[in-house]
Amino acid sequence: MEKDDVGTTPRVLSRIGGVLYLIIIILGASEELFVRSRIVVAGDATATAANLRSLEWVWRLGIAAEIILLICAIALTLIFFILLRPVSRDLAVLVVFFNLISIAVEAVASLGLVAALFPLGDAEYLRAFEPAQLDAIARLSVRFHGFGFSVALIFFGCECLVLGYLIFRSGYLPKILGVLMQIAGLSYLTNSFSLILVPALASRMFPAILLPALVGEMSLCLWLLVKGVNIERWKAQAAEAEDPGPRYAV
User: Fold this and answer.
1) Given a cut of 80, is residue 248 above it in pLDDT?
2) Position 5 confidence tier, pLDDT thresholds 50, 70, 90
3) What's the domain range around 70?
4) What is the reported pTM?
5) How many structural domains compose the chain?
6) For residues 141 and 176, is the Cβ–Cβ distance under 8 A?
C-alpha cells in the first residue's frame, strides 16, 4: 500500500494537500483583508458603489481569486478522501459530500460579486433607474454573497467536525489536529447560524469566532506541509481496511 489509486504516495499527497490548503487560506484572507474590507463600506451603499467603480479591477481580481480558491478546494477534498479513507470509507465519503456542497454554495454565492458590477455599468437600460437605486442594487448583491458564504460555512463546519473525528481516530495524524478541526467546525457553525438567526450578535462574535477556526485550519495545513502522515501507520490502517479479517457464514 505504498501508493494509492492515483499512483502517488500518501506523503506526497499530504504535501500537495498542505500547499493547496495554504493557497486557500492565503487567497481567502487576501480577499477579505485587501478586497472586500477595502471596497465595501458597511451601511453605505453609495460609498460602496463609488469604491466599486474606482477599484473595479481590484474587485475582479478578488473574484478570480475566489474561483482559484474553489478549484484548490475541490482538489483538496480528493486528497482528504484518499488520506482518511483507511479510517472509515463511509465517513470519508461524507466529508466529500459536505465539502462539495459547501463549494457549490460558495460558487453560487460568488455570482453576487459579479452581479454587483452590473448596475454600475453604462448600459442603456440602466438609465431606467435612479443612481441611488443602482447603488442599492449593487450593495444587495454584495450582501447576497455574504449570506451565501455563511450558508456555505454551515456545510464546511459539518465537514470540519467529521474530518476532525477521522483525524483523531487515524493514528497517523496527531489527535490534537482532530480536536482543533472540530473546534473550528463548531466555530463556523456558531457564527453562521448566529448570522441567520441573530445578525447583530454575529457581527460582535465574528472576531472571537475567527481565531479558533484559523488556528485549527492553519495547524492542519502546516502539519500536512511540513510533516505529513505517518506512512507506516497509514499503510497498516489501509491494509486493515482492505482485509478486515475472516468472515464466517451464519
Assistant:
1) no
2) very low
3) 10-118+128-233
4) 0.90
5) 1
6) no
